Amino acid sequence: MNIYFKELKSNRKSIIIWSICVFLMVASGMAKFDAYSKSGQNMTELLKDMPKSLRAVFGFNELDLSKVSGYFGVLFIYLLLMATIHATMLGATVIAKEERDKTYEFLFTKPVSRSIIVTAKLLAAITNIIIFNLVTMASSMMLLAKYSHGEAVNDEIARLMAAMFILQLLFMVIGSALAAVKKKSKKAASLATGILVFTYFLSVAIDLNDRLTGLKYFTPFKYFEAKNVMYGGGFAAVYVVISVVLIAALTTVTYVFYKNRDLNV
Amino acid sequence: MDVIEIKNLTKTYGKARGISNISFNVEEGEIFGFIGPNGAGKSTTIRILLSLIYPDSGSAAIFGKDCIQFAPEIKKNIGYLPSEVFYYDNMKVKELLNYSASFYKKDCSKRMKELTDIMDLDLNKKIDDLSLGNKKKVGIVQGLLHEPKLIILDEPTSGLDPLMQQNFFELLKEENKKGATILFSSHILSEVQRLCNRVAIIKEGKIVTVEKISNLTENTYKKFKVETKAPLDATYFQISGVHNLEVKGNVTSFIFKGNINEVMKKIAGVEIMNLWIEEPDLEEIFMHYYEKEA
Amino acid sequence: MNIFLHELKAYRKSTMIWTFSLVIMMVLFMSLYSSIHADAEAFLKVLKNYPEAIRNALGFNEKNFLTVVGFYSFLLSFVTLCASLQAMYLGTSIVSKEVREKTADFLLTKPVTRSQILTAKLMGAVVSLVITNMIYFAAASFMAFQFKTDDFSMKIFFLLSLTVFFVQLIFLALGMIISVIFQTIKSVLTVSLAVVFAFYFVGMFFDTSGEKVKRYFSPFKYFDTAYIIKHSSYESSFLIAGAAITILAIAASYFIYAKRDIHAV
């Protein structure tokens, strides 16, 4: 599809830069790991004794930092933030940029239905997300192998990447749905980013304060936490269902609102 | 079946008036003008035809099919040139034209080459680097390269130099001879007079009239100002068809509608120092038109 | 000056949102201080049983959690991150906003010099930041008094809060010069996010090595909270470095902008 390929081409530079950043992120994160791993056994006990609130503040939770997988679980939250910011921006701008740059008069008067345009653009965004995901996975597997001391981590990494993919999709459609609904689609990007930042802080707050635990359904960052995905039961069904429903609903919103909105200068 | 059939189209923007109960038809093979002052509703009507915006009530059909329901199908045969062209900055001209051509399931390369030659376009320049007029030229080629059966133009000549305007009009006439129908919106009366067979006049969201150009020109008047050596007697120019006669010092001014030879005879009959003859602007025509109705 | 007032008005809503967000974030953290304080005291006893190496690896600074000022400085890193985003966004918009919204032709043909325009816009941005900081500081002081477990020096508290403003100034200048060089920035948000996060990660990365030189690479590391608490002042070398960068970037912006061709619509 011509629209799809053109969209991919426009995003080429951006995805390359993001990929490099991800790689550097994993690399710098793992460089820190050495310090943790050397302390070995003591570390684990230390963390067990650490009060919950302090652990939350540091982002440690219930992960074993002396193991490479545990450490990666901590690093994961930062990768996840990067991935979701990337996905949110993509979702909010991929279609809305036609209005921002005023090129919609060109594209939307071509003999293609609006739904096809939306499909092509969303597919291009998903392709970018997949590339981001694969680069993260490859970098992680490669770099963790250096430090793993024989521990088999690729399985855990793959599962975390799957979790990341679900969240990426979710934030992408939050972005695109906002862009579809808002009259001034230019503002969609900042609003979507704001929602992302808010849900992140909410997840931190939930960690810090037991009373907020009920709110965990409101922040995607609590759906697939590293400790659960890697060691716990994997993907909790309730969260998978919520994610799928949200993604489906927001995608529908994107299509419906783009089909019916007036496109004005 | 007329190429465009518009029935009672209405669109309001919140409290601001858009268009109200617009109806007219465009027949196959004609060059149809759509004129009106700024803000009258020309662009709104056209954008509804192209399903960029949706009407509050009423309908429009192109090639016999509803313009919104069958939009993708209809657009295969429509070429659109907007008043302000915006394209993807980082593209080169030929990349944009090829991208545009890729939407129509036919080979447009031959026609594209012909058009770029006529419009004198440099295919390898980045669109970003082009002047406004040159971007307009890209728009023209982009709108015509798939040999559409209906060409919709929204104030097309703004930004083009006179030579290019000539070329453009020749192009349009050629397309029309090949069978294309043209809908042409403008507020420059002279353009419309040159090209169009029929014209619809829109004002404040409503169609004032739809008529043949010949009728319109017959109904227009000219403004005269004659400077003479000595002040003229007011009765000198008082012939039939003259209105608003004023004498200020050596300058006599009036407006005239009718056989221009009569006025010329009168002017030839006095020794004049200077002479001004002006075309009325659209607002004046409309005012005059309303007077005629009353 | 009319341009200055226009800019202030234009930034009004966004300044309010940023100020509000920063204050909320700070309030959330500070309100948790009392519970963390209790936990920290308990944990510290446990920590004494562990070897020094581990305590260092953890980066656990007892001071951080036992004093109001200490905890506040821990929270500052997050506040600074967000505040820097605000400053970067303002700085990057200074010139590119006119190009993006196609008002460059309007403003630059008025009887004002380009330098006057830059000054007015810069002042508008600085004043917006000052307002944000003042409201934030007032709120932070209030919170500190509410939740304090010990007496603290207002001077130190003020110095700490001021670091946020200084880092903001650095990013404002950076944003400004980027905006002047790359006039057509389509997505100011992306650029701002990228630059700020890049410096943040660089700061995190170089933290592990501990060499002083590397601290110069990231504005986030210019103000070491431990040092400020201990000495009640800033490290002069970093203060000078920060000031130098800010002044140079701004000066360069003026120079470049005066000579540049203004990109047409």
Which helices and strands occur, and which strands form pairs?
The complex is a heterotrimer of chains A (265), B (294) and C (265).
Chain A (H helix, E strand, L loop, with lengths): L1 H9 L1 H28 L1 H9 L2 H7 L9 H27 L1 H5 L3 H4 L6 H34 L6 H28 L6 H21 L17 H5 L6 H24 L5
Helix pairs in contact in A: 1-8, 2-5, 2-8, 5-8, 5-9, 5-10, 8-9, 8-12, 9-10, 9-12
Chain B lengths: L3 E10 L2 E11 L4 E5 L6 H8 L7 E6 L2 E2 L4 H5 L2 E4 L11 H9 L7 H11 L12 H13 L5 E5 L7 H16 L3 E6 L2 H7 L2 E6 L2 E7 H7 L2 E7 L13 E7 L2 E6 L3 H9 L3 E7 L3 H12 L1
Parallel strand pairs in B: 3-8, 3-9, 6-7, 7-8
Antiparallel strand pairs in B: 1-2, 1-4, 4-5, 9-10, 11-13, 11-14, 12-13
Chain C lengths: L1 H30 L1 H15 L4 H7 L3 H5 L1 H33 L3 H4 L6 H34 L6 H28 L6 H20 L4 H4 L9 H7 L4 H24 L6
Helix pairs in contact in C: 1-5, 1-7, 5-7, 5-8, 5-9, 7-8, 8-12
Classification by helices and strands of chain C: mainly alpha
Number of helices of chain B: 10
What is the rounded distance between the termini of chain B? 34 Å
What's the helix-strand series of chain B?
EEEHEEHEHHHEHEHEEHEEEHEH
Task: Summarize this entry quickly.
The complex is a heterotrimer of chains A (265), B (294) and C (265). Chain A is mainly alpha-helical.
Describe this structure in words.
The complex is a heterotrimer of chains A (about 260), B (about 290) and C (about 260). In chain A, helix 1 (about 1-10) packs across helix 8 (about 115-145), helix 2 (about 10-40) runs antiparallel to helix 5 and helix 9 crosses helix 10. With about 260 residues, chain A is an all-alpha fold. Chain A has helices at about 1-10, 10-40, 40-50, 50-60, 70-95, 95-100, 105, 115-145, 155-180, 190-210, 225-230, 235-260. Chain A contains twelve helices and no strands. Chain A is globular and about 65 Å long. Chain A has one domain. With about 290 residues, chain B is an alpha/beta fold. Chain B has three domains: about 5-75 and about 150-215, P-loop containing nucleotide triphosphate hydrolases (Rossmann fold), CATH 3.40.50.300; about 90-145, no CATH class; about 220-280, 2-Layer Sandwich (Alpha-Beta Plaits). Chain B contains ten helices and 14 strands. A six-stranded mixed beta sheet of chain B has the order 6-7-8-3-9-10, with helices on both faces. A four-stranded antiparallel beta sheet of chain B has the order 2-1-4-5, covered by helices on one side. Chain B has a four-stranded antiparallel beta sheet with strand order 12-13-11-14, covered by helices on one side. In chain B, strand 12 and strand 13 (about 250-255) form a beta hairpin. The longest helix of chain B has 16 residues, at about 160-175. Chain B starts with a strand and ends with a helix. Chain C is an all-alpha fold and about 260 residues long. Chain C has one domain. Chain C is about 80% helix and about 0% strand. Chain C is built from twelve helices and no strands. The interface of A and B includes residues 2, 102, 103, 116 and 265 of A.
